[in-house]
Amino acid sequence: VKDHLLLMTVYSLGVSVFFGTLWRDTPRGRFRYGAVIFASLVGGSVAVAWLMTLLAPGS
Amino acid sequence: LSEPDSSAVARPPEPDPSVTRAWIAAILAWIIPGGGHLFLGRRGRALVYFLVVVSMFGIGLLLGGKIYSIESGAPLTFFALFAELGAGAPFLLVKLLVSVPGDPAGATFEHGSAFMLTAGMMNLLAALDAHDIGLGRKP
């Protein structure tokens, strides 16, 4: 597996599940917090990657 | 001569059971991901921590990540070793039983290393969490 987006998504999923469980005590709170972390990691990475394409030579 | 008052004899303070329990939980949580929470009766958390830490460490290994050791001339490897050591038994088993050189030229070398370093750091946080639960600071 060399798909960077897939690997980043799996990584984000693991991290969000872990921190959702660590920092919230109710199932609903865990889901919401985990979803925010997941969306932030994946969305933030895609946004930064997209911005970096603007800096790429020849863009 | 009167007999000494036994109540006046200084005795060493007995360890607080919650402190002892908290330290046992923290050490268990470090050695076996989720073990400390299982010891404290938090089965749900134990299962989540075990699955996340072990699977992320395993994925990192499959991706060709590096099993760190302290290297002369590269002081930052100390921190990397500390982070991976945080994974406890998974790291120790791989370190002692399997030769995993890691291939820096591999396409997923950095990804794999990130997975394993993160797994170790998360397990250290889980150990601190188990310690807090053992002390009653956290439900």
Indicate the topology.
The complex is a heterodimer of chains A (59) and B (139).
Chain A: H1 4-23, H2 27-55
Helix pairs in contact in A: 1-2
Chain B: H1 17-31, H2 35-39, H3 43-62, H4 77-85, H5 89-97, H6 109-135
Helix pairs in contact in B: 1-6, 3-6, 4-6
Provide the residue-averaged pLDDT of chain A: 94
Helix share bin of chain A: over 70%
Q: How many strand segments of chain A?
A: 0
Largest interface: A-B, 13 and 22 residues
**Unreliable segments of 5+ consecutive residues of chain B:** none
Overview of the molecule:
The complex is a heterodimer of chains A (59) and B (139). By secondary structure, chain A is mainly α. Helices cover 83% and strands 0% of the residues of chain A. Chain A is built from two helices and no strands. Chain A has helices at 4-23, 27-55. The longest helix of chain A is centred in the last third of the chain and has 29 residues, at 27-55. Chain B has 139 residues and is an all-alpha fold. Helices cover 61% and strands 0% of the residues of chain B. The mean pLDDT of chain B is 90. Chain B has helices at 17-31, 35-39, 43-62, 77-85, 89-97, 109-135. Classes of the chains: A mainly alpha (59), B mainly alpha (139). Chains A and B meet through helix 1 of A and helix 3 and helix 6 of B.
Characterize this entry briefly.
Chain A is an all-alpha fold.
Give short descriptive properties of this protein.
heterodimer; A: 59 residues; mainly alpha; 2 helices; 83% helix; elongated; B: 139 residues
